[in-house]
């Protein structure tokens, strides 16, 4: 058996830690070490972690750092990893018992695969009844995501991606991978570490890995319960009622996409076009329209619309929406 280094960054997640530890201990694959990186927690995390470490027979490493964000926490964990494979556990999620074993079987059976991931099921936490919000992140309304249209070698529910459009797809649609639902060969990190972003570092890292020639594969099965709650910092938490927080998250995500050009210097023209298209849509529709204009933040929305138009000046739908919004905004100012 090969050692798997599980890297668990955490920040003030004490109420989730015991569930996280039960999930890890319950894995059918047991040859693992756990590297916990505490990103400056101020709650009861330390006491819970130390109690678990004293009771666990597997090797536990506990690293404490000042609050620097999840990417730096994960990178510190990567530097301490001794395993041939790396897996990432988000402290508020739950791995199903077969997660490590099913991913490692793929990596053992297919030596050309460097990174394997499976689907998540999104589950609501706040009301305490575990309502399923999304049965599988690989499907929407029962229909398979764009991911399945990529050219792949298929073995049952395993799809090994062999499509030179993968980076373009990742930028435009996403290929439904994250760190928390993946297992990777340690060699992936011998060439690069995660970008130092608080939001979007995993999305950029996927493109970086693909551009460096690492091969990704996915298993069409549920391996992870992604727990949705008010403390999520991901842009996927659409239930978040704090509009200001959602705006900040979207701005940070846009910032991470903008920096793609700094991290990847060999994008094809199609990939560059896809990135500009994505940025334009995020500025205009996701930030400007859905988050700012729809919540009465008119001037901020106008500014975001202009950023989208700057990136895609020939998009007629942008101009139509912008002109209508601008005229409405001017009339409202005159009435005041």
TrEMBL record:
<dbReference type="InterPro" id="IPR029044">
    <property type="entry name" value="Nucleotide-diphossugar_trans"/>
</dbReference>
<feature type="domain" description="Glycosyltransferase 2-like">
    <location>
        <begin position="5"/>
        <end position="136"/>
    </location>
</feature>
<dbReference type="Pfam" id="PF00535">
    <property type="entry name" value="Glycos_transf_2"/>
</dbReference>
<dbReference type="GO" id="GO:0016758">
    <property type="term" value="F:hexosyltransferase activity"/>
</dbReference>
<dbReference type="InterPro" id="IPR001173">
    <property type="entry name" value="Glyco_trans_2-like"/>
</dbReference>
<protein>
    <recommendedName>
        <fullName>Glycosyltransferase 2-like domain-containing protein</fullName>
    </recommendedName>
</protein>
């Amino acid at each position: 058996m090969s050692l798997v280094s599980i890297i668990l960054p955490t920040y003030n997640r004490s109420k989730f830690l015991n569930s996280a530890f039960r999930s890890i201990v319950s894995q059918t694959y047991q040859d693992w070490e756990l590297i916990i990186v505490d990103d400056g927690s101020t709650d009861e995390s330390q006491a819970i972690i130390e109690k678990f470490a004293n009771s666990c027979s597997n090797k536990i490493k506990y690293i404490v750092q000042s609050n620097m964000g999840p990417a730096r926490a994960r990178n510190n964990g990567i530097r301490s990893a001794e395993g041939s494979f790396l897996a990432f556990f988000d402290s508020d999620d739950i791995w199903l018992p077969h997660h490590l074993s099913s991913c490692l079987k793929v990596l053992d059976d297919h030596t050309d695969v460097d990174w394997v991931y499976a689907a998540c099921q999104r589950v609501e936490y706040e009301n305490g009844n575990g309502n399923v919000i999304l049965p599988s992140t690989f499907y929407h309304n029962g229909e398979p995501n764009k991911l399945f249209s990529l050219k792949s070698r298929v073995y049952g529910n395993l799809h090994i991606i062999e499509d030179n459009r993968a980076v373009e797809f990742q930028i435009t649609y996403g290929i439904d991978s994250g760190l928390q639902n993946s297992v990777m060969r340690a060699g992936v990190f011998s060439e690069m570490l995660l970008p130092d972003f608080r939001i979007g570092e995993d999305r950029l890292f996927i493109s970086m890995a693909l551009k460096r020639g690492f091969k990704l594969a996915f298993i069409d099965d549920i391996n992870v319960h992604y727990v949705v709650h008010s403390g999520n910092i991901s842009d996927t938490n659409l239930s978040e009622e704090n509009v200001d927080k959602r705006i900040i998250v979207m701005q940070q995500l846009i910032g991470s996409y903008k920096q793609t050009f700094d991290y990847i210097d060999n994008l094809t023209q199609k990939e560059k076009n896809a990135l500009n298209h994505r940025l334009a849509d995020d500025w205009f529709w996701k930030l400007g329209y859905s988050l700012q204009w729809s919540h009465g933040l008119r001037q901020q929305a106008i500014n975001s619309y202009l950023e989208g138009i700057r990136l895609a000046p020939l998009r007629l739908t942008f101009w139509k929406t912008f002109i209508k919004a601008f005229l409405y905004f001017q009339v409202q100012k005159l009435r005041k």
